[in-house]
Design goal:
By secondary structure, this protein is of the alpha+beta class. It has 5 domains: about 130 residues, Rossmann fold (3-Layer(aba) Sandwich), CATH 3.40.50.140; about 170 residues, Topoisomerase I, domain 2; about 120 residues, Topoisomerase I, domain 3 (Distorted Sandwich); about 120 residues, Topoisomerase I, domain 4, CATH 1.10.290; about 90 residues, no CATH class. It contains 22 helices and 23 strands. It is globular. The two termini are about 55 Å apart.
């Protein structure tokens, strides 16, 4: 509680702190949420196309069931007789403004409000902020933009999910962010499937000077073989040009959440959801700063803090000037107040310096290592190298060879020092040997065959990047958010697509790709362009920015959304033949009645409506073992009646291997038992 510390508030109560003339309390995420459709009429309990569109005139809100206690605390505090004014100190941004205002309105408070607007949680920044509180009215337009975004998302999700579910007779989740994300994966797989590889050939010459020079790509094999024969005949090449150029690579920026998630996926194989979970835990342990940030910069007032922190971390890790060429922090490039929105970049804290890293759980330890390394890399010197390009000629054809020589390791020394145990080993730089003669003999000449490569399947790393940059060319330059989703929600979007059976992860433990399922492909096939395209988000962000600036009335924005939804409901018809695409995936045979078992959102169900057999994905028996019923496990159980599980976890935290046996009750319901290894 940084605010309480700065204000000298130390008296802890239930859900708040009190002292020194202040009451300090907190919101736990979104305490107040939009009410479900059923709140607007009983007819909306069931899903019927005839009841669409659902376009509330008077919006209703409910207190979240999980946060009722804290909301009650806040309401009592807001209405206390000794409270004269209220300070909104939620995150400095659209969502922070929305969270506070909804609590304030739902509590029925009418007391004057001031706004604390911070880019940093450092003590000096907080003191300065409290000394310069601003009238809440200055942020009314920001609040209206936040309301418009929230309500428009609700209308798209509610109306489109019901519309398409009713049209195709099965539950289909549709969302402004989720559907374009799925569409990107479907489009990528279509490109891969349509790709036709083309062969090409190169001639490689091993020269007496000690390097290998290669020709351009040649599409015709006959032409390549002719060149090969001519080179073997001449057996000498003429040096045309040698170019040496010094190049450098600047350090990478500090981490925002998306970049951290991408690196964790690429280097460690962690999902975006896992990385967010580990980062949140580190934050709660006061080892890192707030993780849900979209900024990779710090504000001016944080520069001195970062410089001191970097020096202390170098001592903590035992990094010497010899390790890094120059260990003096270079913090200026990390400073950009204009690009610090709600929160600055993710940084380690000074508390981390007193932590035994080896005592942390492995996932948290690895994420902390990435954050530590990135922080030190960001303030290190550039990586400098000498690139040599040599051009030689033989048989009238030009051949080239490249070499690189490290001049100064710079930030890459930190990467090597801190991340040696988790880095992917990359090819080392190879310098070209010195060439003095104008002609070189040819020791060996050979023909090499290659082919063009298709686009790569999405990993979480590359999908997060695509979400971050989607329709970037259509976005307003100063939009609060670029791309689709936010850093805090992109991981949840991917997880939701997996859980609902639209995406699946395939691959080994380290490298998994994200592939659309047949169900996911079918959904995008029937989805109108305006719903599956990220361009809608770009258009929204442009208009929300205008609302935020007071250049567009909120009513105008909402009228446009209402019209779009109404038009969609009134004009959309089921795509002919789509029912065949929507068939549930058969994964096995029911052990009770012999009918097909199909995969649905919440489990694997027997198609026989009279049969009660089902394997629930969120299965309590498997949950007790620390496992989940996925498609592989379900397939094994249906095919063999058993599945061997490694590293099951007991209630006391011990791990063991066991085999789960599947039988059925008299009424057809599934029944599980354990067979322990070594038992008779």
């Amino acid at each position: 509680m940084s605010y309480a510390k700065v204000l000298g508030v130390h008296g802890r109560q239930d859900g708040y702190l009190e002292g020194n003339g202040y009451l300090v309390s907190w919101c736990v995420g979104h305490l107040v949420e939009l009410a479900p459709p059923s709140a607007y009429g009983e007819q909306y309990v069931k899903w019927n196309i005839a009841d669409l569109p659902i376009l509330p005139e008077e919006w209703q809100y409910l207190v979240s069931a999980s946060t009722k206690k804290q909301f009650s605390v806040l309401k009592k505090l807001l209405h206390r007789a000794d409270v004269e004014t209220v300070v909104n100190s939620c995150d400095a941004g659209r969502e922070g403004e929305l969270i506070f205002r909804l609590v304030y309105e739902q509590a029925g408070c009418r007391k004057p409000v001031s706004r604390l607007w911070l880019s940093s949680m450092e003590d000096n920044a907080i003191r300065e902020g409290f000394a310069n509180l601003k009238p809440s009215k200055e942020y009314d337009a920001l609040y209206q933009a936040a309301l418009c975004r929230e309500r428009a998302d609700w209308m798209v999700g509610i109306n489109c999910s019901r519309l398409f579910s009713c049209l195709y007779g099965r539950p289909l989740a549709v969302g402004r962010v989720m559907t374009p994300t799925l569409a990107m994966t479907v489009e990528r797989e279509a490109s891969i499937a349509a790709f036709v590889p083309e062969k090409f050939y190169t001639v490689a010459l091993e020269l007496t000077s000690g390097f290998v020079a290669s020709s351009r790509r040649i599409s015709e094999k006959d032409a390549a073989e002719k060149l090969l024969a001519e080179c073997r005949k001449e057996m000498v090449s003429t040096i045309q040009k040698i170019t040496r150029k010094e190049k450098s690579e600047n350090p990478p920026p500090l981490y925002d959440l998306t970049t951290l998630q991408r690196d964790a996926n690429r280097l460690l194989g962690y999902s975006a959801h896992q990385t967010l979970k580990y980062a949140q835990s580190l934050y709660e342990k006061k080892l890192t700063t707030y993780p849900r940030t979209d900024s990779c910069y710090i504000a001016d007032e944080d520069e001195e803090m970062l410089e001191e922190l970097a020096e202390e971390m170098e001592h903590f890790l035992g990094i010497t000037p010899e390790d890094m060429d120059d260990a003096a922090p270079r913090t200026r490039r990390t400073v950009n107040r204009e690009k610090v929105t709600d929160h600055h970049a993710i940084l380690p804290t000074r508390s981390m310096l007193q932590t035994d890293l080896d005592a942390l759980p492995k996932g948290e330890r690895n994420i902390l290592k990435l954050i530590i390394a990135r922080t030190l890399m960001a303030v290190s010197k550039p990586f400098r190298y000498l690139e040599t390009l040599l051009t030689t000629e033989c048989a009238g054809e030009e051949f080239t060879a490249k070499g690189k020589e490290i001049l100064e390791e710079g930030w890459k020394a930190v990467e090597r020092k801190v991340l040696a145990d988790i880095l992917n080993r990359k090819k080392e730089f190879t310098a070209l040997p010195p060439v003095e003669e104008s002609e070189c003999g040819i020791l060996h000449a050979e023909l090499k065959e290659g082919q063009t490569s298709p686009p790569k399947h999405y990993t979480e790393d590359t999908l997060l990047h695509s979400m971050e940059t989607a329709s970037a060319e259509s976005m307003p330059e100063d939009a609060e958010r670029q791309g689709i989703g936010t850093p805090a929600t992109r991981a949840a979007t991917i997880e939701k697509l997996v859980q609902k059976g639209f995406l699946e992860r395939k691959g080994d433990k380290k490298t998994k790709v994200l592939l659309p399922t047949d169900k996911g492909k079918a959904l995008i096939t029937v989805m109108p362009e305006e719903i599956q395209s990220a361009d809608m988000t770009a258009d929204w962000e442009t208009k929300l920015l205008r609302v935020e600036r007071g250049e567009m009335e909120p009513e105008t924005f909402m009228t446009e959304i209402n019209n779009m939804i109404s038009s969609l409901v009134n004009t959309t018809e089921a795509v002919k033949g789509a029912s065949a695409l929507m068939k549930n995936k058969v994964i096995g045979i029911c052990p009770n009645c012999g009918k097909s078992v199909v995969e649905r959102e919440k489990g694997y169900f027997c198609e026989n409506r009279e049969c009660r057999f089902v394997l629930w994905k969120d299965n309590a028996f498997f949950k007790r073992l620390g496992k989940r019923m996925d498609a592989h496990v379900a397939d094994k159980l249906l095919r063999d009646g058993r599945v061997r599980l490694k590293d099951c976890r007991s209630a006391k935290g011990k791990t063991y291997n066991a085999t789960v046996l599947l039988t059925t009750e008299a009424d057809g319901r599934s029944k599980f038992s354990l067979e322990f290894e070594g038992s008779c």
